[in-house]
Write a structure and sequence with these properties.
This protein has twelve helices and 13 strands. It is of the alpha/beta class. The protein has two domains: about 5-250, Aspartate Aminotransferase, domain 2; about 255-395, Aspartate Aminotransferase, domain 1. Helix 4 links the parallel strand 2 (about 80) and strand 3. The protein starts with 8 loop residues before the first helix and ends with a helix. The structure holds pyridoxal-5'-phosphate (PLP).
C-alpha cells in the first residue's frame, strides 16, 4: 500500500485524455468525449478483476457503503451488525441510512467473528457488514452461511482489501454487494473514489440510480428524459478521478506481488521473535498483504513495542487500541450521538446505548495488536535494515 507510490505516465495519460476533451462528467456528451468513458471503463475493469457481474463507481468508499445499504433496502430503524474495529465510515454509512449500527465482536482474524453474531441478532436485524480489515479477510464463508440461514443481507466492506480473495473467490463477491474505496491511502487510489460490485442486476441498477439522484439512465443522450424510479442523491465520481483509477487498476497485480513479497520477507524474519504471534488469516494465499498484523503477549508489551518500533525508525506501525478512528473505544462522537443535527437514530426507542456497549473479546485482541504497513517502494536494503531494527527492538 498505497497505489500513489507508483504513479507514473500511465495515470497522466488517462487524465490528459479527459482534460483534452473537456468532458469531466461521466454521462452524456457523446460527441465531445471522443470515445473516452473513464468511469465506465473502470467499472468494466473492476468486474474483470473481481469476477463480479456488475460494478458501479462512486465518489468514495463511504458512498459505496451508502449505495449498497440503499440498494439492499436497508433504512430507517433496521439494525446492521458491524465490527468495532473498522474505519468510522462503516458506522457513518449505517447511521446516514437511518439505520442502527450494532456491534459484534472480532476474532484473531481482526474481522467480525461469525461465532459471536447470535448474541447481537434481534428481530430488527437486517444486515451484516463485515470489514476485511488491513488487507486480509474475515471468515467470510461462515459469515455468509450465518446470513443465509437467518435471511440477513451480507454486505462486505472490502475498502481495505481490493485484490484479496478467499479460496480463490475475490473479497467483495461473497455478499449481496461488496464495497471498495480508492481514497488516497488505499491499495489503488484515484484521489477520492469508491465502488460497489454485485452479481445481482437489480441491486446494481438501484445503486446506479441512487448514486445519481434516481436517474434510470434510460433516456439516451437527454438526461431530462431519464425516468426517476427512486429518490437518490449525488455520489457520482468525476471522469478525472476515474481516469486515475483506470491506470491504477491495471497495476493491481504488480502492487499485490510487491506487497506479498515484502510482507513475506518481514514475516519470515519476525517468526520466532519472543512473544510475537501473527494474525489469523483464513486463506493466506488470498491475503492482499497491505499490512503485517501481529500480536504481543499483553497490552503493555504491545503498546511499548509499537512505541519502540517507531522510535527505532520502523515507521507505519499502528497501535489501533489507542487510535481515534479505527476502534470503538475512542468513538466518543458515536457514544454521545453527536451529529451535526438531530439523527434519525435519536427517534428510536430501541437503539443501543453506544456509551455502554462492551466488546470484551475485541478489546482483548486489539490491545495486543500491532499492524505494520507494507510499502511498495522499499528497496531490498531498506527491508534488511527494517528487519534488523525490528529484531533489535523485539529482543524479549
Ligand atoms: C477507507 C475506508 C472506508 C471509506 O472509504 P473513503 O473512500 O475514504 O470514504 C470505509 N471502510 C473502511 C474499512 C475503510 O478503510
Amino acid at each position: 500500500m498505497p497505489g500513489f507510490e507508483i504513479f507514473g505516465d500511465e495515470e497522466k495519460k488517462e487524465v490528459m485524455d479527459v482534460l483534452e476533451t473537456g468532458v469531466l462528467f461521466r454521462y452524456g456528451f457523446d460527441q465531445a468525449r471522443q470515445g473516452h468513458w473513464k468511469a465506465a471503463s473502470f467499472e468494466k475493469q473492476l468486474c474483470e478483476t473481481t469476477g463480479a457481474g456488475f460494478s458501479h463507481l462512486c465518489s468514495s468508499g463511504t458512498a459505496a457503503l451508502s449505495l449498497a445499504l440503499a440498494a439492499c433496502g436497508i433504512g430507517a430503524g433496521d439494525e446492521v451488525i458491524i465490527p468495532p474495529f473498522t474505519f468510522v465510515a462503516t458506522f457513518e454509512a449505517v447511521i446516514n441510512a437511518g439505520a442502527v449500527p450494532v456491534f459484534g465482536e472480532i476474532d484473531e482474524t481482526l474481522c467480525l467473528n461469525p461465532d459471536k453474531l447470535d448474541a447481537v441478532v434481534t428481530e430488527r436485524t437486517k444486515a451484516v457488514v463485515p470489514v476485511h480489515m488491513c488487507g486480509s479477510m474475515a471468515r467470510i464463508d461462515k459469515l455468509k452461511a450465518f446470513c443465509d440461514a437467518k435471511g440477513l443481507t451480507l454486505i462486505e466492506d472490502a475498502c481495505q482489501a481490493l485484490g484479496g480473495s478467499f479460496k480463490g473467490k475475490y473479497l467483495g463477491t461473497f455478499g449481496a454487494m461488496g464495497c471498495f474505496s480508492f481514497d488516497s491511502v488505499k491499495t489503488i487510489t484515484c484521489g477520492e473514489g469508491g465502488g460497489i460490485i454485485t452479481d445481482n442486476k437489480a441491486l446494481y441498477e438501484r445503486a446506479d440510480q441512487y448514486a445519481d439522484h434516481g436517474h434510470d439512465h434510460l433516456g439516451g443522450s437527454d438526461r431530462g428524459a431519464d425516468g426517476h424510479p427512486i429518490m437518490g442523491s449525488n455520489f457520482r465520481i468525476s471522469e478525472l478521478n476515474a481516469a486515475v483509477g483506470v491506470a491504477q487498476l491495471k497495476k493491481l497485480d504488480k502492487i499485490l506481488e510487491i506487497q506479498r513479497r515484502n510482507k513475506q520477507a518481514i514475516k519470515d524474519a519476525m517468526t520466532g521473535l519472543p512473544g510475537v504471534t501473527f494474525r489469523d488469516i483464513p486463506d493466506p494465499d488470498g491475503d492482499s498483504a497491505t499490512f503485517l498484523s501481529f500480536f504481543m503477549e499483553d497490552e503493555t508489551k504491545a503498546r511499548n513495542t509499537a512505541k519502540a518500533l517507531g522510535e527505532a525508525g520502523v515507521d507505519g506501525c499502528a497501535y489501533y487500541y489507542d487510535n481515534n478512528w479505527h476502534y470503538l473505544k475512542h468513538w466518543h462522537h458515536l457514544k454521545t450521538l453527536s451529529g451535526a443535527a438531530k439523527l434519525p437514530l435519536e427517534l428510536l426507542e430501541n437503539r443501543p446505548d453506544y456509551a455502554s456497549v462492551l466488546v470484551p473479546d475485541s478489546d482483548a485482541i486489539i490491545k495486543r495488536n500491532i499492524s505494520m504497513q507494507i510499502k511498495l517502494g522499499w528497496s531490498d536494503q531498506e527491508i534488511d535494515q527494517r528487519i534488523s531494527k525490528i529484531k533489535e527492538t523485539i529482543k524479549g
